Amino acid sequence: MTARWMEMSDKSWLGAVLGLLAPVIAAGCERPGDTIFGSGFERPPLHAWYVAPGGNDFADGSAAAPWKTIQHAVDMVVAGEAICVREGVYNELVTITKSGSPAAGPIVLQAVPGDVAVIDGAGLPIPNGQNGLVTLIDVSHVVVQGLELRNYTTTSTSKVPIGLYLTGAGTQIRLLRNHIHAIRNSGNGCAANAFGLKVDGTRAPASINQLVIDGNDIHDLVLGCSESFSLDGNVEQWTISNNLVHDTNNIGIGAIGFEGVAPDPAFDQARDGVIAGNTVYNISSYGNPAYGNEYAADGIYVDGGTRILIEHNRVHHVDLGIEVASEHAGRTSSDVIVRNNLVYFGNSAGISIGGYAANVGGSERVKILGNTLLRNDQQGTGSGEFQIQYHSNDNLFANNLVFAGSGGVLVSAYTGDTSAPAVLDHNLYWSDAGASASSWVWLGVEYDSLAAWRSGSTQDAHSPWANPLMIDLAMPRPCVAAGSPAIDAGADPGNGLAGLLDFDGNPRIRGNAIDIGACEH
């Protein structure tokens, strides 16, 4: 790992995000007492222009005489200026191709605080290819904040509607607290695609970098084979934090590589990023025409990404909770850290690594540390709480609290295609099925007791079978009661890999040793 990546992974997610989100006040745009948070720019916008449904594009764009359309405002604005969108519905597509600058300040497109400013795609034609209700192309130093984007729909397989779309290359872009919903492609099969929020790094070597996507609410999407929210291609140095992603029929958050999005394969990979503090729920591909009756949608999916930190996320009622893999033969997701997350009540695996088939890629050097996995595999797929699939090498699974439901499958390493797909130790195992009806699978061989598992797999030498005494199983939190066998039972992996803070923001190591699971007692 690079020195920069190690430095990033040693920070708390909150500190890392707040370090990137410095106050930006759009002059004249705020209501009394409101502060507009943007993105580390040295100076706020110097001038604010206004848009309102009752405005006139031949007016002067002032607060007293606003323009009528957002696109007209975008065409008029220059670096260091803000567009303040007042309450109302705007039935238009918006494309931004201008940039702010470090010297003059950013270009800011935002709703006036307290106003519900809606960009509504109902009835608008969708050109062939990928198109956003709001599209940013080759821009830098731009903030899009506080808008509601909705009702961009099609049934055509040649058209890909997107709520908020960033493409090309650029630096210092902030997509903050937008509400994106009802983006749909209802066509049949995997060729019918849509996205709520999409970032495509389509240049090389120039990348999209220093990108923050924070506080957005993305939901009620019909996606085909696509993601609710994804980064793809040449995208680096990014943070995805504090977003809600829910009630969609495919993957929640994706960081993707090797899809040919960037023109040079050496740069075609989402990398050096953080996925932290997000809540992802009600995500399932079951009934999606592209999948049929399959539980295949991840809450968080790294597909060919590298040097990515995934921590402090709450993922529940999805198909697979967190997956780190690659869909391309000979390629892997690599050097990913998955730590201090809470994953529960999923339809299939809690955490999964490795390719889904022998003819795709896999995972290497993935470190899965201090997570709480609770009663996943609700649909009895056999994938269990922790699943290892094809082409997995040099991975680590340690300090995790693994609590299986009535199916009792704790670990499912079913392929046997590699002799040492992972090292497992200092995990705590428990199951609603009881000791006699629980199981572990290693290289395709099933074991029905912890002792047999240890002997046959040579894993988990320091891992107990014990009731973790979790505080709340109905409304799950990762914390355990006093006296839990999870307390002080873990082992610090060193090099800052455990992180500074647990799931609840407390010091990650307190007492005599690190605890097992996502919460430090």
Write up this protein.
With 521 residues, the chain is mainly β. The protein has a domain at 319-521. It is 6% helix and 38% strand. It is built from 4 helices and 41 strands. The protein has a 13-stranded parallel sheet with strand order 1-2-5-8-11-14-17-20-23-27-31-35-38, with helices on both faces. The protein has a 13-stranded mixed sheet with strand order 4-7-10-13-16-19-22-25-29-33-37-40-41. It starts with a helix and ends in a 64-residue tail after the last helix.
How many strands, what sense, and barrel or not for the largest sheet?
13 strands, parallel
Principal-axes geometry comes out as elongated
**Strands, count:** 41
What structural class should be given to the helix and strand makeup?
Answer: mainly beta
Q: Tell me the strand order in the biggest sheet.
A: 1-2-5-8-11-14-17-20-23-27-31-35-38
**Percent of residues in helical segments?**
under 10%
- Cα distance spanning the termini: 31 Å
Counted by DSSP, the helix tally is: 4
Task: Flag low-confidence runs.
Answer: 1-27, 31-42
**Over the alpha carbons, how many angstroms does the gyration radius reach?**
23 Å
Indicate the mean pLDDT: 92
**Which oligomerization state do the chains in this entry correspond to?**
single chain
Roughly what fraction of the amino acids lie in strands?
35-45%
Supply the key terms:
single chain; 521 residues; mainly beta; 13-stranded parallel β-sheet; 13-stranded mixed β-sheet; 4 helices; 41 strands; 6% helix; disordered N terminus
